[in-house]
């Protein structure tokens, strides 16, 4: 059986689980009551259960359905998280228990970072080593320039631009965002390069003015990659732009952090400066994204020699 491991940051299962969730994020240090109170208020304002968990489950179900049909193989999709159950290590252990003979890792995040995709992959390798299990692993990554993925984002920017009122449509700018990273840009070259490559590809398709910006930076005095999205909004306001389309390129799955940092807070700033604001929707479990990401997985599978050998074995057994 082939096991596909979807990996993400993680999310609380209940609003009562915020303390344990943030304690894990903070490496065992329990957050202050003030921090938990503020986080709880945000989740209440969100008005739904944390969408990252629920949408990821739907993505997993959809990906399993499409890949099983397209590859004609026994295949199961698992979910592994960095900061909440099921953790990546737990998912790997379950895959082994289920008899998975081949693992495909699929981080549902667009760009590579050492603390994101890189760490997920290391967790998989370490758990297999701890279990003393030798299972071939195919890491599906660096899919940000897949033409169908680019089309997914392009279509959403086009839809947003069409929606804008005629009074501001011709003086519009697209701000592409991604989570900031700690330290200097040169320490995250793969991440920043992939971000700029995807933004450039989408901008070429939509033919609109555009900028890149980083969101969700941590507190000072830690240095974080910029420019910050709030500063960019103020800059384009000073330039006389009348409308902004905000498009986050890192998070394909809806989550509270992007909802507030690239949505609510950015819209508040833009509106205060007299700028009309629109945010593109998340790709989530939409048909075009699920089709696109499954095509990426299938392409990686068929271009991998180890998988092709296993594919032949699976086919002969099934026949």
From TrEMBL:
Cross-referenced PANTHER family: FERROCHELATASE, FERROCHELATASE, MITOCHONDRIAL
Pfam family, one: Ferrochelatase
Molecular functions per Gene Ontology: ferrochelatase activity
Highest taxon of the lineage: Bacteria
Any one of the GO BP annotations: heme biosynthetic process
Record organism: Anaerobacillus alkalidiazotrophicus
SUPFAM superfamilies: Chelatase
Gene3D superfamilies tied to this protein: 3.40.50.1400
Protein name from the UniProt record: Ferrochelatase
Family to which this protein belongs: Belongs to the ferrochelatase family.
InterPro entries linked to this entry: Ferrochelatase
